[in-house]
């Protein structure tokens, strides 16, 4: 999840801070903690939808990850996913749910009654309206919240793109729901890639120190507060793209549950990316070419193939932790 083909380096700069926060490998820790809290029939909130300023439409990164996460959690835990989105993603969500094998219903009551089902809820851009919407969502009694590639305000309440542009007016106020969930001590999980996303404030000081534009005065708007998120999740992943962090988490869940059905394959990855682009999900530069942060369908499908093969080795090996015996003898130490 942290390969860096473009050599920008933000994910590699952030990983040590995230690993220290997690106390170990980040995707595996994330998956382990998520596994501890979920049980069949639980409602799980999955937040996604970063609106890009070039077309004021949502990007694919995070959207595809949210749907694949919903699929994985249904396969692995038989939960009831509620995907929380900005208005710009609503139609795409309804049209793409079937691609991952889930039935979309407008009513949560129907989702609770039926297998392989999910729903979506729109969070407004207006903070007051978002408060009212959040209260309605909390009535679902969610067991956990997972956020991926979702805009977060900084300490001054301003939302930024990674490069520091102010996008407060065009972003759904997901943090309103996030903060209400935290007040209720519901576990929060967040995935991002630059430190400006919801939940990444868990290592805010580290991000401000290591990510260009994240610290005080680093943004290119009047607030001068920097792009670093002020919201802090209980568990976080930072990857090259948020979606890649999501795939790593799904792979870890498949390993932990010893269930390869949890991990999607390259064909599903390709189908979903093409469907998402067809229904308006943008890549970073504003193009409707199927890509996640500029990385093609082929690249992402290859990554999924590699992850699946790694998990299959762990799931099928008679002694998946064979290396432990060498470690205990001091073979890898001086």
From TrEMBL:
Residues 32-307 form the D-glutamate cyclase-like C-terminal domain. It holds the Pfam family GLUCM-like_C. It comes from the Bacteria. This is D-glutamate cyclase-like C-terminal domain-containing protein. It comes from Desulfitobacterium hafniense (strain Y51).
